[in-house]
């Protein structure tokens, strides 16, 4: 199974630029064109939050128009820039969004692989939270899919990154402790995949050693790699991309970072162009 992850699309209204500089709708169209051509074709795509930017609900209309180009089954998740009801209203045909529960949480089975999508939104805070209700749902779902390789998808990562500015907008201590408590009980979690950081970072889940987690680059702009104490929060127009989570029997999940071009190549090892 091949699960494609896109994240932090930050779609703006027509004529507006994210951070005054980035045409995020055009960036998403480029990402979709790349993914639609990808071989092998991903079995599904999950967008791990910050789908829109402000949130102004008309941004979901632009998002919907962009996503209409996608030819692969799509699952949407909320981040701190999203609006749960606005998302539901814009995507009435996405049945998994309309469960009657407050939180945008759902289970998707992709052949033998299970994906559990978890809602870390904590409005009006930019940081995230996992309350006991959400954690109880996760625990119940993990019990229900015991024995199946499972990916947990969520917007805010369950670890500190070392980028102080963004760690200031992380998951609450209570949410992290609860997430560690639940995930350390289950042995079939292959990977926890997250967004929010606009960078590719790998770590263990804080408090649950051995449970691997990662974040992914944005389809648009990236957060500057500011590891120095007190480094200011800024964006950088580093290459955009997406993640490909490849699961195969006996090998588990391998996560590949794919960049969105154009870029030079491919060439043979002799320097010849390869079409
Ligand atoms: Fe974001
Ligand atoms: Fe975010």
Automatic annotation (TrEMBL):
Calcineurin-like phosphoesterase domain boundaries: 3-199
Keyword Iron among record annotations: yes
The entry's keywords: Hydrolase, Iron, Metal-binding
Pfam family, one: Metallophos
Domain of life: Bacteria
GO molecular function: cyclic-nucleotide phosphodiesterase activity; metal ion binding
The keyword Transferase appears for this protein: no
CDD domains attached to this UniProt entry: MPP_GpdQ
Cross-referenced SUPFAM superfamilies: Metallo-dependent phosphatases (SSF56300)
Name recorded for this polypeptide: Phosphodiesterase
Protein source organism: Pandoraea horticolens
Lineage of the species this protein comes from: Bacteria, Pseudomonadati, Pseudomonadota, Betaproteobacteria, Burkholderiales
